[in-house]
Amino acid sequence: MILIVLIAWLTTFLINIIPFFMPPTWTLLAFFRVRFDLPTWLLAPGGAVCATAGRCVLALLTRRFGARFLPAKEQANVRHLGMFLKRQHWSYAGILFYAFGPIPSPHLFIAAGLVGLDLRLVAGAFFTGRLVSYSALVAGTGAAADRLGPLFSRQFGGAFALIGPLTAAGMVLALVKIDWRSVLQRWMNGHDRPARETQP
After folding, report:
1. Residue 141 to residue 26: CA distance in whole angstroms
2. 13-64: per-residue pLDDT in tens?
3. What's CA 187's distance to the chain center, in Å?
4. Which domain holds residue 22?
């Protein structure tokens, strides 16, 4: 059993390094849970650790090599967004809320890598949310084991299989293409204006 658990964890780690066209991690863990009758209390915490580690590797690879493939304008856009987020102390609670759902997460870590956010904050919130969501989702697969086959078929076949990766790719593209300096200046000015107008 230990060997199968290690294979499940290693596979979880590897698929979380790859940003697109990978199945949701919880479905992989659910497969091992049902196919090999592995305990949720062993799969879910290890899966959350390995998923978080894989995403952090993705973020570090993006930080190391991603900017090299961006033109100067896109690099400036990302740099301005990064400085803004660092000043605003990006919310642990916001990332935690995001991580509670089985939502594709590569663009979160790609963004964190590109803008140079503190990965300890992102990884901590992500791990907490995924630990809870994986535990609930994997534990619930025992009663719905016969539905895993159709779930995997939809994940890898037809238009359904493209929605998640295309959404993530589109969000990453928007991240680097938006002129964040102008957008954030207008946003900050809009929030400052009411305060100025109330001053005598």
Report:
1. 10
2. 999 998 877 888 888 898 898 888 899 999 999 999 999 999 999 999 988 8
3. 26
4. 2-197
